[in-house]
């Protein structure tokens, strides 16, 4: 059970970077295979049913998809040096930062890739999708394959109206992280947490690797560069420690405050819209209607800009993880969690709007 793991992914892929960093930290033997048309045809589509990466095939032939599901399945198999902190504040903070990295940092990641690194991105997509071609033919393949990704920007709220705000927010985030990683190897000590793995997806695949955003990171956040390099080449594989006495460093709090300021209002709105959507779509309850990737549009605010963006139910599936953890606490533990949330402006999570519970069934989002 410790040999023969197959990862189907790509270097420029957001979530492949998250899984790859985890596998390296855990020293889980794996071979990585590119997301070529042949691998989509022979492996991914037959096993998953739709075109997506990353995909993991275990030695027993089990297919796993979605970075969080892959990591959780492997944590059960490889429990040494768990990436989920055992103490209340660290675990809650780590779960929240995974949500933030996975779902919110897509906004700057996609902006920088398609508005600041366009030619490089097209070249990368061409190499992935048509490795047998060269020159203009490969570029044309890259243009064709990348259209859905580049075309997703307005649905994420990335428009000319928000570009300056996105860059202001992202550069401020880099500054906050840089001050933290000037002192600490990872978010909560010398071992990476699930929060670190949530952040590495966008900060490696899009922001560190892509040339223009990579230069920006090197110029204004060299300590973040050092963290990225540690995440991709762990200095203490299957080792390191989380900070004692459940310490969440003061330098992590500004990042959580940014999450609550920017993302939490969108999550509240998403929960309200999703509850209404389910009431209006009885087929979803009966299992005869799939939950779409987006269920309409709503307004979000970033810095001094406001714009429409799609409403993504998947964000709520991710948010269930920290909400479930909060619900499991009582007494002193609940008080400590509440103290952390009060310090970062996250009190709304303690009384979050009810929404229909979500699960993943046949590698797709579904009502539980």
Architecture overview:
This protein has 368 residues and is of the alpha+beta class. It has three domains: 5-77, Glutaredoxin (3-Layer(aba) Sandwich), CATH 3.40.30; 88-247, Glutathione S-transferase Yfyf (Class Pi), Chain A, domain 2, CATH 1.20.1050; 262-367, no CATH class. Helices cover 57% and strands 10% of the residues. It contains 17 helices and eight strands. A four-stranded mixed β-sheet has the order 2-1-3-4, with helices on both faces. It has a two-stranded antiparallel sheet with strand order 5-6. Strands 7-8 form a two-stranded antiparallel sheet.
At CATH level 2, the architecture of the largest domain is Up-down Bundle
Quote the distance from N terminus to C terminus: 30 Å
**Nearest-integer average pLDDT:** 96
State the domain count.
3
CATH fold-level assignment of the largest domain: Glutathione S-transferase Yfyf (Class Pi), Chain A, domain 2
- The amount of helix comes to 55-70%
Largest sheet, strands/sense/barrel: 4 strands, mixed
- Total beta-strand segments: 8
Instruction: Output the helix-strand order.
Output: EHEHEEHHHHHHHHHHHHHEEHHEE
Low-confidence stretches: none
What is the CATH C-level name of the largest domain?
Answer: Mainly Alpha
Which of globular, elongated, flat, extended, rod-shaped describes the shape?
Answer: globular
Strands of the biggest beta sheet: in what spatial order? 2-1-3-4
So what's the oligomer here? Answer: single chain
């Amino acid at each position: 059970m410790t040999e023969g793991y197959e990862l189907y992914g790509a270097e420029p892929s957001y979530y492949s970077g998250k899984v790859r960093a985890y596998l390296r930290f855990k020293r889980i033997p794996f071979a990585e295979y590119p997301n070529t048309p042949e691998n989509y045809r022979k492996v991914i589509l037959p096993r998953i049913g739709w075109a997506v990466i990353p995909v993991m095939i275990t030695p027993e032939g089990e297919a796993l998809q979605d970075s969080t599901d892959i990591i959780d399945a492997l944590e059960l198999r490889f429990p040494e040096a768990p990436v989920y902190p055992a103490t209340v504040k660290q675990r809650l903070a780590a779960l929240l930062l995974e949500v933030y990295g996975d779902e919110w940092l897509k906004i700057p990641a996609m902006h920088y890739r398609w508005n600041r690194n366009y030619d490089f991105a097209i070249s990368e997509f061409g190499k992935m999708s048509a490795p047998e071609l060269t020159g203009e033919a490969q570029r044309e393949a890259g243009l064709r394959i990348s259209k859905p990704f580049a075309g997703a920007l307005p649905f994420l709220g990335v428009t000319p109206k928000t570009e300056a705000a996105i860059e202001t927010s992202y550069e401020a985030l880099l500054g906050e992280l840089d001050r933290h990683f000037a002192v600490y190897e990872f978010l909560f000590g010398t071992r990476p947490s699930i929060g670190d793995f949530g952040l590495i997806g966008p900060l490696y695949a899009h922001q560190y690797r892509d040339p223009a955003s990579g230069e920006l990171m090197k110029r204004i956040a060299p300590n973040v560069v050092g963290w990225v390099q540690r995440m991709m080449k762990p200095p203490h594989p299957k080792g390191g420690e989380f900070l004692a006495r459940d310490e969440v460093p003061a330098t992590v709090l500004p990042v959580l405050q940014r999450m609550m300021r920017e993302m939490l209002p969108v999550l509240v709105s998403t929960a309200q819209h999703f509850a209404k959507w389910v009431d209006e779509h009885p087929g979803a309850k009966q299992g005869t209607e799939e939950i779409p990737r987006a269920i309409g549009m709503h307004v979000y605010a970033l810095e001094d800009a406001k714009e429409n963006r799609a409403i993504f139910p998947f964000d709520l599936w991710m948010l269930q993880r920290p909400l479930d953890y909060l619900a499991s606490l009582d007494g002193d533990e609940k008080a400590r969690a509440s103290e952390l949330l009060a310090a970062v402006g996250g009190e709304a999570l303690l009384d979050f709007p009810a929404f229909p519970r979500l699960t993943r069934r046949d590698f797709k989002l579904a009502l539980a």
